[in-house]
Write a structure and sequence with these properties.
The chain is an alpha+beta fold. 43% of the residues lie in helices and 17% in strands. Strands 1, 2, 3, 4, 5, 8, 9, 10, 11, 14 and 15 form an 11-stranded mixed sheet that branches. Helix 5 crosses helix 6 and helix 11 packs antiparallel against helix 14.
Length: 477
């Protein structure tokens, strides 16, 4: 079984430049307003020209996307085409300077790292007659003050999903617009934007090229995950990754795979040795080493392993991705081989020995124990939270009614804490209980999956040894 997905003739470098453009928010708005074309250089001799057809952003979720339509030349001028050859939806990635909460904490942390359901809905408060709901008055947490606002009749609740799901819905809308035409719709993006490009491409059966994007396989339905793992999207979804990058190659352990074919921009051997060193020692030491590496390379960019720049991505004269170290070949992770970029396609090659299977099983068992410890700590976190809230109440109760706070009383303290809290249930709660439960559920899911994988690896090793002995007896060795 194979997918019948139309592939784009656009080069890797074209998608790279369009991913860069997705971050140029003001520039794109100006181009859309003035109906001006944009020149995208894939190579000096073969630029392409585009118009901004739509900008989709949401201040509550952090979504930033732009729809590019390829221009056509008429009478010596580049004009917006009614029937464009290509339409590309480009997603901006994590922008901590612009939106650290929605990009960094909710999307990267909640969806990408912990696997929270992208389609999960949340309620937001808006004015009753609001026409633009891309920025609301805030997430509804059920606090008394928010309920009081709603009872006035001047405000209402609306629902939104995550920016990952919003990206998927946008692509679905664009694809529907061009159904039945010759136009090829594809997606691209960098970092979180690349994850959204991959996620929406697989869900809508279209072509995608992503850069330093985290794996989002676990966010898909079971059926889609099976198709991904069977390699059905390997020819159509391309993840171009610097193997030194924690975001693209794996925050903790190296990713098993991305949605399609994973191309490392250099031989990953040294990167894997460095990762192994970061994963050595006690649990606390591992956390410290990985955290320092993440801050240095992704946040401070010293060295820069994640950015959308020439330090991480280079291209040949035809716009194909090249090895950043100047070698002729790039690395196909799916095939575990150094190959010319143009020769990389789908398919997997897995080499397993009884010894390596046993070692993998031992590592999996150790990971399961670590995850069980993390789950237990997460389940007991509420106790420390409640103790700290009680201490805070006691401290401020002792300060009101006299001195600088002589006009305040104990009820004012209670009301303030409730207003500042994220939610309310028999008392103020200063953390996302849904995210907490999702985290605990994801830990349990990971434990279950790893236990199954460990058992499978042990069985592989045992079966190999048994078959090897049978062959030896047959050959009288």
């Amino acid at each position: 079984m194979s997918k019948k997905i139309r592939t784009s003739s656009l080069t890797d470098e074209t998608y790279y430049r369009m991913s860069q453009r997705a971050y140029n928010y003001d520039y794109l708005k100006k181009k859309l307003k003035n109906n001006d074309y944009i020149r995208i250089n894939s190579s000096i001799s073969n630029p392409t020209y585009w118009y901004v057809d739509k900008i989709k952003s949401d201040d509550d979720t952090g979504l930033d996307a732009v729809v590019f339509v390829q221009a056509e030349q008429k009478n010596g001028k580049w004009v917006k085409s009614i029937n464009p050859e290509n339409v590309v939806v480009s997603f901006a990635g994590t922008d901590l300077g612009k939106d650290p909460i929605n990009d960094g904490a909710k999307a990267d942390g909640g969806n990408i790292v912990f696997g929270s359901d992208p389609k999960k809905e949340a309620h937001y408060i808006v004015e009753k007659d609001a026409k633009d709901t891309s920025k609301t008055l805030g997430k509804y947490n059920g606090t008394p003050s928010q309920d009081a606002m709603l009872t006035t009749g001047d405000y209402k609740l609306i629902t939104k999903t995550s920016q990952v799901d919003q990206a998927d819905q946008l692509v679905k809308e664009v694809k529907r617009k061009y159904n039945g035409t010759s136009t090829i719709v594809s997606t691209t993006g960098h970092s979180l934007g690349g994850a959204e490009a991959e996620y929406s491409a697989v869900n809508n059966d279209i072509y995608a090229v992503a850069f330093n994007s985290p794996s989002v396989v676990k966010l898909h339905t079971d059926n889609k995950q099976e198709e991904i793992n069977d390699g059905l999207y390997d020819p159509y979804v391309k993840s171009i990754i610097n193997p030194d990058d924690m975001v693209g190659a794996g925050y903790w352990n190296e990713y098993d795979r991305h949605n399609g074919t994973t191309i490392y921009t250099k031989n990953p051997a040294l990167s894997q040795i460095n990762r192994k060193q970061r994963m050595s020692g006690r649990w606390g030491d591992q956390i410290e080493k990985n955290l320092i590496y993440f801050i240095d390379t992704v946040i401070l960019r010293n060295p820069d392993t994640h950015g959308l720049n020439e330090a991480n991505f280079t291209f040949d004269e035809n716009g194909n991705i090249t090895n950043v170290n100047g070698d002729e070949l790039v690395y196909d992770k799916n095939l575990n081989a150094m190959l010319p970029a143009g020769a990389i396609g789908g398919g997997d090659a897995i080499k397993v020995t009884p010894k390596s299977a046993k070692k993998l099983a031992e590592k999996v068992d150790a990971m399961v124990e670590d995850l069980r410890t993390m789950k237990k700590e997460a389940q007991n976190a509420y106790q420390e939270h409640d103790e700290k809230v009680a201490e805070l109440k006691t401290e401020f109760h002792g300060q009101v009614g006299h001195g600088f706070y002589d006009q305040l009383n104990a009820q004012d303290v209670t009301n303030t804490l409730e207003d500042l809290a994220q939610s309310y249930d028999k008392g103020p709660i200063f953390y996302d209980t849904q995210a907490e439960q999702s985290f605990i559920d994801s830990l349990q899911a990971a434990i279950t999956d790893l236990e199954e994988i460990g058992g499978f690896l042990n069985k592989i090793a045992d079966d190999f040894e048994q078959k090897d002995q049978m062959l030896a007896n047959w050959l009288r060795l």
